[in-house]
């Protein structure tokens, strides 16, 4: 199979000859030139995107299933085999206060997934207690989180993953599209606070992992988990510990004393490990 064949299969024929070896995203906006994102910058391509092409791509991605299409649009994206994701934008239709679909599509953001591997021998000595992963947007927090989950699982530890938005596992038809290790249990579709507590009750984990802690109810769930002797892996939006402490929610998180260690991502996607200084 060609690289990124899962994406090429849903694209119109005129896009299938693109060199996508270094592409991070393909951006398709109705009436505008298509563009690829490489190294964080957009590069325009020739031609114009037709609105009907957007609908055709989404239909192929959901395998012509109206139900699958509706369910996907409610969360704003479609996950393809291989973990690739198609983000959707357009004229929203709201029913009973919830997104029910789109009257018309205006843009698609096709994100190319790469399962980046990291050296477990470097990670494991630092994964002896609950760990928080810090990084700026796009720094690779979720990639490092996957690597930590896989390293723990492959070392014989039970890890439960609360993947509320499907970012960590890219679950498709009950199967994770990213390898998270042989002793990993994955829950999708529930909010982080509900999901983490369900995993605590149901799966007897040694670790619970979640992406992007953003709400106080997440903190309450993690505090409960920490009292039960289960360790935590999570990510937070902050480039370093100083920026983390400037944000009220994260200051509160640190005062709870649950996390003893942090992985801080660097611009070259390497990381440094620091001990948490609880106030």
In short:
With 279 residues, the protein is an alpha/beta fold.
Task: Please give a structural write-up.
There is one protein chain. The protein is α/β, with parallel strands linked by helices and 279 residues long. The protein has helices at 5-8, 51-61, 66-75, 120-123, 141-154, 192-203, 216-227, 241-245, 248-255; strands at residues 25-29, 35-38, 41-44, 77-79, 85-95, 98-111, 131-135, 159-163, 184-188, 207-210, 231-237, 261-265, 271-275. It has 2 domains: 5-111, Beta-Lactamase; 120-275, Rossmann fold (3-Layer(aba) Sandwich). The strands form 2 sheets. It has a 7-stranded mixed beta sheet with strand order 9-8-10-11-7-12-13, with helices on both faces. Strands 3-2-1-6-5-4 form a 6-stranded antiparallel beta sheet. The mean pLDDT is 90.
* Largest sheet properties: 7 strands, mixed
**What's the gyration radius in Å?**
20 Å
**Proportion of residues in β-strands:** 25-35%
Query: How many individual domains?
Result: 2
Question: CATH H-level name of the largest domain... which superfamily?
Answer: P-loop containing nucleotide triphosphate hydrolases
- Strand tally is 13
What is the number of helical segments per DSSP (H or I, 4+ residues)?
9
- Percent in helix: 25-40%
Please state the structural category: alpha/beta
Q: pLDDT below 50 for ≥5 consecutive residues: which ranges?
A: none
Report, as a whole number of angstroms, the end-to-end distance: 53 Å
List the helices and strands in order: HEEEHHEEEHEHEEHEHEHHEE
| CATH topology tier name of the largest domain | Rossmann fold
Which of globular, elongated, flat, extended, rod-shaped describes the shape? Answer: globular
| Whole-number mean pLDDT | 90
CATH class of the largest domain: Alpha Beta
CATH architecture of the largest domain: 3-Layer(aba) Sandwich
**Strand neighbour order, sheet with most strands:** 9-8-10-11-7-12-13
